[in-house]
Design goal:
Rna Polymerase Sigma Factor, Chain: A; Arc Repressor Mutant, subunit A; mainly alpha; flat
Amino acid sequence: MSQPLESTATLLAHVRAGDEGARERLCATYLPMLRRWASGRLPAQARDLAETDDMVQITLMRALNRIDEFQPRHEGAFLAYLRQIMLNNIRAEIRRVASLPPRSELVQEPPANAPELADQMAQLQLMEQYEAALEQLGESQREAVMLRVEFGFSYAEIAQALNIPSANAARMCVCRALEKLAALM
């Protein structure tokens, strides 16, 4: 018979107490979600040495190194914390690559992938608009959108993570938040 799942709050308490097994279980729980969310977020021009798995590992390491500073308010808060660290890491990597001197090009013609670069820039601008609008939402609406859109949680999972009474109530919360988000964008 399988063991019941531990809540994130329980795992965090054990990690703070120095339980290495809890640390490994916490990583095993969040690694796939964070990897899935991070996939494709790092623009191609910033992918010289930093790959998605590296960014995910750095994110988890930073979160766990500062675990004593994190105060969970509800079950979905740790995932939102990881997401914010990941976004900060991605932004730092983009700034790092942008500050590097341009690579010398042998050919002076426009690159063959110019339309691809334009698409990437448009995606980056859209992501920045999305992030700015997301920050204007209230905390519960922001977390509901992130859990549904970015992490693919079901409405039942969102209800459980955010202490919402039912899956239908979570669906309504997400729908209202998405409407507000669209208006802000």
